[in-house]
Design brief:
single chain; mainly alpha; globular
């Protein structure tokens, strides 16, 4: 996966150009996805690819709709990711699954695969960032129960809260 991961990271950075915020976010989500993969039985290649490209639809959403709302990202992201992924020797099934995750990454009720859950939780860990750190146990337990889809993602949120 390492060489594919490196190629896809390069593609993502090229696509986002000088948008350091989006690049940094994608890299951080990918890092959490790799950590969650250690405790969950997901497909590393699919999870890492979807993590890298999960927000790839933002620039097009902003251009077309004047908004980067999640539902616009879900519409615009898959065709962009597909075009990039088709440059590589990847199966149609692989590309379809990565695009399906990207096309639902703000809609946790739409997909129930472990690969989706890992990407979703990794994105939540980054997006909730400061809300997780140093909050009381009840708040964290409620957040974990309501938001996180994997036990590993929830456990990482609890560790972040404790400063570990």
């Amino acid at each position: 996966m390492s060489s594919l991961k490196d190629k896809l990271l390069k593609e993502m950075i090229q696509y986002f150009e000088d948008d350091e915020k989006r690049i940094s976010h994608a890299v951080e989500v990918t890092r959490y996805a790799e950590e969650i993969l250690k405790g969950e039985n997901g497909d590393e290649d699919i999870v890492i690819s979807a993590s890298i490209f999960h927000d790839i639809g933002i620039p097009e959403s902003e251009r077309k709709y004047g908004s980067n709302a999640g539902h616009y990202q879900e519409i615009e992201g898959p065709p962009i990711a597909r075009k990039i992924l088709e440059k590589y020797d990847l199966s149609k099934e692989f590309i379809d699954e990565v695009c399906e995750i990207i096309g639902n990454h703000h809609s946790p009720d739409n997909l129930n695969t472990i690969n989706f859950k890992i990407v979703y939780d990794a994105d939540c860990l980054v997006n909730f960032g400061d809300q997780i750190r140093k909050k009381d146990e009840t708040f964290i337990s409620t957040l974990v129960d309501k938001v996180f889809l994997t036990a590993t993602g929830g456990n990482i949120a609890k560790k972040i809260n404790k400063g570990n």
